[in-house]
């Protein structure tokens, strides 16, 4: 059985990952922030999803929606339901 310290050591990379996701994320030389009540990130396909008062802040615009998907590879942003863009 793993000790508490060993479990914590395995958890550290996950905690660091979520801290990075919840703060400013640098994407292809543009600084983009994503906020929401629930945020997920897939390392395999490099997609971020924010839901619940989701907000994506780009240096040139802001997007608000119930759900926002951002593909880091393609740069495609999808806003779903109650979408608003401010430039």
Structure notes:
The chain has one domain: Lipopolysaccharide (LPS) transport protein A like domain (lipopolysaccharide transport protein A fold), CATH 2.60.450. The protein is built from 1 helix and 7 strands. Residues 20-29 have low confidence and may be disordered. A hairpin with a 5-residue loop joins β5 (61-71) and β6 (77-80). It has one helix at 4-22; strands at 25-27, 30-35, 38-42, 47-58, 61-71, 77-80, 84-86. 22% of the residues lie in helices and 51% in strands. By secondary structure, the chain is α+β, with helices and mostly antiparallel strands. The protein is elongated, with a radius of gyration of 15 Å. The relative contact order is 0.15. Strands 1, 2, 3, 4, 5, 6 and 7 form a 7-stranded antiparallel sheet that branches.
Beta-strand segment tally: 7
CATH fold name, please? lipopolysaccharide transport protein A fold
Class inferred from helices and paired strands: alpha+beta
In the predicted model, the low-confidence regions spanning at least 5 consecutive residues are: 20-29
Oligomer: single chain
Number of helices: 1
Highest CATH level, the class: Mainly Beta
Cα-to-Cα separation, first versus last residue = 54 Å
CATH superfamily: Lipopolysaccharide (LPS) transport protein A like domain
- Helicity range of the residues? 10-25%
Mean model confidence by pLDDT:
79
Alpha carbon gyration radius: 15 Å
How much strand content do the residues show? Answer: over 45%
From the spread of the alpha carbons, the general shape counts as elongated
């Amino acid at each position: 059985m793993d000790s508490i310290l060993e479990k914590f050591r395995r958890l550290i990379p996950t905690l660091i990952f979520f801290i990075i996701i919840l703060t400013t994320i640098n994407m292809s030389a543009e600084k983009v922030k994503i906020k929401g009540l629930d945020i997920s990130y897939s390392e395999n396909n490099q997609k971020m999803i924010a839901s619940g008062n989701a907000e994506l802040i780009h240096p040139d615009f802001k997007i608000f929606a119930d759900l926002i998907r951002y593909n880091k590879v393609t740069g495609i942003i999808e806003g779903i339901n109650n979408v608003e863009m401010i430039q």
